[in-house]
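Lecture 7 notes: from sequence to structure.
We start with the chain below.
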Amino acid sequence: MVLRFYRFGAPLRCLVLAMTFLAIFGAIRFAAAQTRPANPDSALQSILEQLEGTPLALENAVQQGLKSAAPLREAEAAYLAARGAVRREKGAFDPELFLSFDYFDDELPSASFFAGAAVLLTQESISRAGLRWSLPIGTEVEAAVNSTRLKTNSRFAFLNPQYNAFGSLSLRQPLLRGFAASARKQLTSAERELEAAKARYDQAVLGIRAEVESDYWDLYAAERDYAVQKLTRDRAAEFLRETELRARTGLIGPNQVANARTFLAEQELLLLNREEGLDRLSDRLAALIGMRPESGKPRFIAIDDPPADFPLEPVEILVQYALENNYDLAASKQQIESVRSLANAARWEALPSVDVVGSLGGSGLSGTAQDVIFNDDTLRTGVSGGMGEAVSQAVSRDYPNWSVGVEVSIPIGLRSGLGEKERLKAEVVRAEQRYIDQARTLEEEVRSTYRELYNGRRRLEAAREGVDAAQEQVRIGLIEFSNGRSTAFELVRLGEDFALAQQRYSQALVRTAKAAATLRQLTSGGYPALPQN
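Predicted structure tokens for the same chain:
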């Protein structure tokens, strides 16, 4: 009897596995038929529908990401900072009003008869007002009116208080500083940086869309991986129940139960890993878009299916379009122009400084006339009036003056200017080489992504054929088993192959969809509808 038990144990185990697999496979096929029979994933649909979580559409995820993604907000802040820098540099050429006022009260002992007092008391108010203006060609213009009011106890003061005014229009024009190249260097550099920041922001928008879409399809694939693993786990649990039942009836030995428990434990661990991976991808997507699942829901659930087909242009057209329109590449080009503007100014600033300076002005004098007694004579000035009179004389140039001159400054050795010129020239070369490297990398990525997208069609077709072939293998296996030409273990293996074929099909869909998202990012939104020349 012992020999018979172990002799017929293997066929009985095969029968148990076969019955288990037939029941599960039949349930799966029935569930698939009730949902979407045309979809290769339909065998897993019943498990996916029971997956707990907050449903999330792809477009909703993208819009939420554009609204809340931290990298995009950072790129926006960089753009706003660059715009503020341009406004600041433009402000350097805005006219500037200035006004100053000083008051002095002095007591000065004197031993001179002509001081007019033994202790000379003076109260002086000095005011200055005007307008300064730096022009984009380097010209510095200043128009100012200076006035003083002097009150003293000197008996020799003909005017007390005395008002003096001086008006001037002065300018300074550098001759060897490159005019606009040097004067506007910071503004030109800031304008190029602004354009670069705008391009980086536009690319960041596309980058967030592509990243959200990529994470969304990763979540899609993880859900199906989880469903495949749960299907395997459920089959292992059913297998354990059957082996325990057979063991209680004495049809199989305890070693078979131990094997079934080991198999189930392994599948449970794998299922936990799949679930953790699914939750991790959901958390990553939630962190990117700045939104969590609904209260009480453990994760997001992808409800959209990736497209199965994508239009393709010739790769050379895609490469050319990317090189001409990629925002990151455009930002690097503006970075080159920014550094080049500073380098062009440095060529002029390395030369000696030669400035033409000149001014036009006028003076005015007024005050309250005082009698001055000198010896036996009483003297009185003919000047009189208030502060307004003195200022009017200065502005009207009743007493004109002018000046013109040249100021030359020659640093010995010119090392500072020449060193800065060499540094900025090298910075231009560095920026150009970064641009070249970035363009080559972009071309490589476009070609690589194109190949992945191009092969995606055949990859999907192969995956579909794999699913069909796996289904056909199972059908044939069932027939062979019923005719005694196959074992239950072989049916289990065929069922696992069928599940893996479905998983590969989902992965092929996801891989193609992610490649399309990457290609849209590399072409800065040009793909799939490139403009026709």
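Points to note: The mean pLDDT is 84. The longest strand covers residues 353-369.
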